[in-house]
């Protein structure tokens, strides 16, 4: 399967960078996130977008005061940043991509690695014609 803008995806996953790595994104909450990477998981038809938010886990952070803001920012990232990965008018679903996982972490970590020192939150979304919707099947089990 070919990824957006002619990038070729690989069987398990691969990295592409339509959004520049390290590019800052101002979230609706006022928090600044840096794009870390985008992983195209062809086997699962999932786009994984990962962002660094340095003060994510701090007790005095905006997220600690209002945890709903984390979800709202992640939904916003899904609805606004996924489209930047695709050129043209074709919807991601028409290209075989059905889900998005948005990850926020307080410092960069290689995908798939574990580190108890790194705080991460992630949420799964389904791509619809109306945007991103919470992937409720994840919570049914």
Report what the structure shows.
By secondary structure, this protein is an alpha+beta fold. It has one domain. 13% of the residues lie in helices and 30% in strands. The chain has helices spanning 62-65, 68-81, and strands at residues 14-16, 24-26, 32-41, 46-52, 99-105, 120-128, 131-134. Strands 1, 2, 3, 4, 5, 6 and 7 form a seven-stranded mixed sheet that branches. It starts with 13 loop residues before the first strand and ends in a 7-residue tail after the last strand. Mean pLDDT is 82; it is low at 1-17.
Order of helices and strands: EEEEHHEEE
Number of strands: 7
What structural class results from the helix and strand content?
A: alpha+beta
Low-confidence stretches: 1-17
On the 0-100 scale, what is the average pLDDT? 82
Could you say how many structural domains there are in total?
Answer: 1
Please report which band the strand proportion falls in: under 5%, 5-15%, 15-25%, 25-35%, 35-45% or over 45%. 25-35%
Count of runs of 4 or more consecutive helical residues: 2
How far apart the termini lie comes to 30 Å
The gyration radius over C-alpha positions equals 15 Å
Helical fraction: 10-25%
* Overall 3D form: globular
Question: What profile does the largest beta sheet have?
Answer: 7 strands, mixed
């Amino acid at each position: 399967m070919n990824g957006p803008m002619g990038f070729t995806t690989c069987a398990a996953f691969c990295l592409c960078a339509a959004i520049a790595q390290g590019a800052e994104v101002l979230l609706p909450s006022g928090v600044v996130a840096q794009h870390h990477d985008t992983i195209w998981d062809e086997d699962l038809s999932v786009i994984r977008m990962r962002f660094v938010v340095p003060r994510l886990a701090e007790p005095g952070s905006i997220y600690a005061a209002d945890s709903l803001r984390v979800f709202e920012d992640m939904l916003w990232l899904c609805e606004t940043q996924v489209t930047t990965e695709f050129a043209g008018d074709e919807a991601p679903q028409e290209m075989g991509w059905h889900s998005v996982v948005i990850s926020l972490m307080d410092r960069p970590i290689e995908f798939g690695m574990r580190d108890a020192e790194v705080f991460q939150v992630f949420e799964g979304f389904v791509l619809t014609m109306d945007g991103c919707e919470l992937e409720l099947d994840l919570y049914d089990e």
